[in-house]
Amino acid sequence: MKIKYLILYSILFFASVNAFAQSNNGSVSGKLTDPITGEMIDFAGVAILNQGTEDIVKSGTSNNGGAFKFTNLPYGKFSVRITYIGYEKQTIDDIEINAEHTEIHLGIIKLKKSGNAMAEVTVSEKKRIVEFGADQINYNVSQSLQSEGATATDILKNVPMVSVDIDGNATISGKRNTRIFIDGKPSDYMTSNITDLLNVLPSDAIEKIEVMTNPPAKYSADGEGIINIVLKKGYKLGLNGTLSLSAGTLGNYNVNTYASYKGKTFSLSSSYAFGKSESNTYSSSLSQNFLADTNYYRNQYGNRSGLNYGHNIREGVNWDIDTTQNLRVTANLNINRSTGASGSDYLYFDENNLETKMRNQGNSNQNQSTNYSFDADYTWKRTNGDQLEASATYSANTSANNRFAQTLYLDANDNPLPGSLPLNQLYDVDGRNKAFQFKIDYDKPLGEAKRSTFNFGASANLRTNNNNQDVQGFNFTNQVYLRDTALTNNFVYNEHIYSSYASLTLKTENKWQFRIGGRSEFTDVNFSVSALPAPYNIKPYISFFPNLSASKNYESYSFGVSYSGRIGRPNIYSLNPQVITNTSNPNISFGNPGLSPSYTQQLDLSFSVFGHDWAFYPRIGFANTTHIIERITTPIANGAYQTTYDNLGSSSYNTINLYGNYRINKKINLNGGGTLGHMVYQSSNTNSTLNRNGFTFQGKAGVQADLPAKTAFESNFNYYTNTSAQGRNKGSLTSSFAMRKSLYKNKFRVRLMITNPLGQSSSTTLTQSDTFNKQDYYTVNTRNYSMSVSYNFTKVGNKKPLKGI
């Protein structure tokens, strides 16, 4: 961006601080009736209470038709308390007003006749598992019975528009660059490996998962979308919690605990999870090279077994300083350990498909990582509706990866090749990373009706990654290990990102909503490699990202359009020029320090139509990316392949998403849909095979059923396939079935679950260019039969649960 545009934007940004504002404008309505006669109940007392403090926000009475409605409510969680002579006092909990759900309709509420005056009954409004908004999908974890005793990775597999590949990496609609956030903050500030954290993070500690296809301007512009995991905060008064144990035939065990206590001003929450899992994978690779001077084949067959276990501890303190101020402090500790062993055979063939030699490689490894983070969040709500939020996060992690590799060189008869000694190597890779993030956001009411909103803020994100690789090779002559200077290296990466944003939301009386926002980010990156004489100092750059949307709500349908700019910064793995393995290895990989960031412009059209028992949500997406970053594989001498990263040129990705749900009756609910995308690559590289196109597809289907005797059933099916610059990746159909039985007034629950009874998880990757064709097959043993037992405890007074309204 040119300097003059930056100056203009800054002037507009700071000038707008005193001119605009934000408000939270919500409403709650319902109608009261007698359960026997159906007559409307007039002049009943109705009050809106803050669910966290039980302070009365608004109060009134039902009109002469039994109806009530409260408007101009702020965002938050509330309870509705209803009292009337001759009927039991009734409380409806878990009513949440937010940007996507500003109007809450409770429908017809049947009050219960009272035998003795004012006993209190609690009604919990059952949420849908999936809630769709114009720019966001909410997956309510507590509503899925498969979430009990599960981990975050297990839950993500069932979220609409989310794909989880065979390695546990989650993306939105097959997009290449999806960011994972936890409580609105980037997860890479909590752990060095997000997959390890998600594999042990207990689902019992998760409130919901938000899929943001067009994140608001307050969120980082990095990535093509955000998956935000919202953790429970413990809002209910008193003590409540969950303990669950699970075990499976694959050797997987999980222990999950979550507890929270809330008094009038203080609340405490705590969670602990332990997970152990075993894995067995099988792979094969068939390749054919077409080089200028030869035509040969190489086949690879391998297997790997591994043992993984981890702990995750999260502690939180929430303090309501007074009626306007709140302070929340959380700490998270994540520890992961793993061991594994693998073996591979590389068979080489000439142009007549006759074997010429073989390479046998065995590996054993031990890995460990420790990650910890500290968060402090402060909120100040002024009496005029202004709200200030400030947060600070510090995180650090250490990792140690140790590997022993032995390579044997054999001829076609499995005899040692003359003059070729075995290769024994020791790899010691240590990581030391730390990060700090500071954010401040300010919201202020706009206009007398407080219907429109304005918010602005700034943030600073600072991090340092230190990766040290030490490699030693065995010298058979001297019978001693010597350092391999070609592979030993130290890589230090520093990244500073400073951001500011402003966003204006306008709401009209006829239910139109417009959002106009922008975000600017200043990026300063430098890194050094010990083997090179000088550090890399990338020239600092400033980027601006517009964020626009418009939507309209009707009685039974709504539609919206949104546009935003995003950035894809090269990460430390794609920049690091260190060669990870010996240059004589058949597969060599390294980064490209000359990478530039990619920029994406994306446009989404959304539509939703719904009835009393069904809903349908189609949406269309258009995205164009310049300087796209992709992994590129090329053959080199002696049948080896090297993989690195490059800015290929541009790509366009168009998608259509069709999702919906249908409630057959009060007991059975169906949901499902799919995403079909078309990818087109236009390469600036001289390799013409990178100019290609292809289709991606992801499909999901599920059913939930409430059966007699407090029994429930749920099943889910998933499938995905996608296209890359050099080929395509095809997954397999995965499935899961679960049955749950509730006992002792729902305090105990027993769940039986079957994962992938129809087949193992597998993937097939096809890669090709002018000089080679390559097919990779990968299978993971995932067929599992598991059982979990959970216990829920609650002590919140003398409230009695009511099953329905």
CATH homologous superfamily identity of the largest domain: TonB-dependent receptor, beta-barrel domain
pLDDT averaged residue by residue: 83
CATH-derived architecture of the largest domain: Beta Barrel
Number-wise, the strands total: 47
Q: N- to C-terminal separation?
A: 57 Å
Q: What does the largest sheet look like?
A: 27 strands, antiparallel
Count the domains. Answer: 2
The residue ranges in which pLDDT falls below 50 over 5 or more consecutive positions are 1-23, 116-125, 797-805
**What's the overall geometry?**
globular
| Percent range for β-strand residues | over 45%
CATH class categorisation of the largest domain: Mainly Beta
Global Rg = 29 Å
Structure description:
- It comes from Mucilaginibacter gracilis.
- Residues 1-21 form the signal peptide.
- Helices cover 3% and strands 64% of the residues.
- It contains 4 helices and 47 strands.
- The strands form 6 sheets. The protein has a 27-stranded antiparallel beta sheet that branches. Strands 3-2-5-6-8-47 form a 6-stranded mixed beta sheet, with no helix packed on it.
- β24 (423-446) and β25 (452-475) form a beta hairpin.
- Residues 1-23, 116-125 and 797-805 have low confidence and may be disordered.
